[in-house]
């Protein structure tokens, strides 16, 4: 799936929007936005309804459920690895800050 279409799905996850609102949020033209919406609608990722003269689009997450179900078992592993990575980054920052403080103390002592 193209990044712009994923972006549209992300925006629509917050709620139903008309094309002009999507155009404003995405910063792309109406024809391109409509083209992406057509593709997403044909793939059943979005639903559309008419309200007066506007077409309102909303996310239909049901086609994403099999992907979610497949990825779910890996979530715990990813979380644990990211937690370890965060710890390493914090320790590295503390180490670098301590070294900078020590170097500054040496420079002022001279």
Topology:
Blueprint: H1 3-12, E1 17-18, H2 19-26, H3 30-42, E2 46-51, E3 54-59, H4 65-71, H5 75-109
Antiparallel strand pairs: 1-3, 2-3
Strand order of the largest sheet: 1-3-2
Number of strands: 3
**Structural class determined from secondary elements:** alpha+beta
Order of helices and strands: HEHHEEHH
Tally of individual helices: 5
* Biggest beta sheet attributes: 3 strands, antiparallel
**Helix proportion:** 55-70%
How much strand content do the residues show?
A: 5-15%
The backbone outline, from C-alpha atoms, is elongated
Mean pLDDT: 91
Distance between the termini: 61 Å
Query: CATH superfamily membership of the largest domain, which one?
Result: Winged helix-like DNA-binding domain superfamily/Winged helix DNA-binding domain
CATH class of the largest domain: Mainly Alpha
Radius of gyration: 24 Å
Report the CATH topology name of the largest domain. Arc Repressor Mutant, subunit A
CATH architecture of the largest domain: Orthogonal Bundle
Low-confidence runs (pLDDT<50, min 5 residues)? none
Q: How many domain modules?
A: 2
């Amino acid at each position: 799936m193209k990044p712009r279409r994923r972006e549209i799905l992300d925006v629509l996850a917050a709620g139903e929007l008309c094309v002009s609102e999507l155009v404003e949020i995405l910063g792309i033209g109406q024809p391109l936005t409509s083209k992406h919406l057509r593709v997403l609608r044909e793939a059943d990722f979005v639903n559309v309804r008419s309200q007066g003269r506007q077409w309102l689009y909303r996310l239909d997450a049901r086609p994403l459920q099999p992907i979610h179900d497949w990825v779910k078992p890996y979530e715990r592993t990813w979380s644990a690895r990211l937690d370890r990575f965060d710890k390493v980054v914090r320790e590295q920052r503390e180490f670098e800050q301590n070294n900078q403080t020590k170097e500054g103390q040496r420079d002022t002592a001279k």
